[in-house]
Amino acid sequence: SALHLVDLVFHEAGHVLFWPLGNFLMIAGGTLTQWLIPVAALVALHYRNRDNFGASLALWWLAISVIDAAPYAYDALRPQLVLLGGRTGDDGPHDWIDMLGDLRLLPHAQRVGHLLHWAGFALLLLANAWGAEVLRRQWRNRTNESVRDEPQ
Known about the structure:
The chain is an all-alpha fold. It has helices at 2-18, 23-48, 52-75, 95-102, 109-140.
C-alpha cells in the first residue's frame, strides 16, 4: 500500500530511536515505532482535538501497519522476502528472525504472522465501523437550514 513507504520511514527511524535501549529493543523498535506513531496520532486526534473521525483514520492507519508487519513475521521461519538491503533473512539481517529467535518463538513465526494479519484485520473493521458511526451521527445531527444571504 501507499502507507508502506510511510511506515517504512517510521520503522527505520525506530531502530535509531530505540538504539540506546539495547539490541533487542533496537531491533523491535522499528516495528514498535511503526505502530506507535499511528497510536500517538489516534490519541492526539481523539483526546486533544476531539476529532473522532480523524482518530478513526489513525486507527485505520494502525491496522494497515499491523497488517504490513504480518508477512515479515510469517517470513521469519523460512526467509524468502527480499528486504530493504536487497537480501533475504538467510543472508542478511531480518528483524523478525532476531526478535522471535530471542523470544524463542521462531518455530511459531507463521502463527505470529497469521495472528498479526487477523489482529490488523480486526482493527481495520473496528476503524471502519467507528468512522462510519461518526459520519452517521454527523448526518443525523446536520441542520436543514439553508445558508441565508446577507441582507443587501
